[in-house]
Amino acid sequence: MKQLFQHAAVTEGVTVRVAVNFLPEQSRIDAGKWFWVYHIRIENGSDQSIRLLSRHWRITDGRGMINFVDGEGVVGEQPLLAPGASHDYVSGCPLGTPHGSMEGHYTMQRADGSMVDVAIPFFPLAAPATAN
């Protein structure tokens, strides 16, 4: 299945694309829990290799509550992307409201040792309306 990336951001030649889907089978709406899965593709369009060292997320729920999530790598990896290479991964986000959003950045290190914060585009988390 070809993934449709709905959101993208470019920082100094590195593109981050995001596709997000609501997962009703993983959600427990009766218990106030909604769950989304997101697929991210990082494309290195720069002229040198770059390693993803850490992630920094800002997750906002439908009440405006903000949760910051910081950690090493992505899904247990610190991928090294050669020029022209890409890295894909899938992760998920639970929320206590049917709507919210995510955005953030990756801290990456270039082959020359310099650091760059690569933007992760803002993307909404929105569960479809359900009949009561």
UniProtKB/TrEMBL annotation:
InterPro entries in alphabetical order: ApaG-like, ApaG_domain, ApaG_sf
Signal peptide positions (record): none
Classification via PROSITE patterns: APAG
Domain ApaG span(s) in chain numbering: 8-132
Matching Pfam families: DUF525
PANTHER family: OS05G0170800 PROTEIN (PTHR47191:SF2)
Name under which the protein is recorded: Protein ApaG
Species in which this protein is naturally found: Novosphingobium sediminis
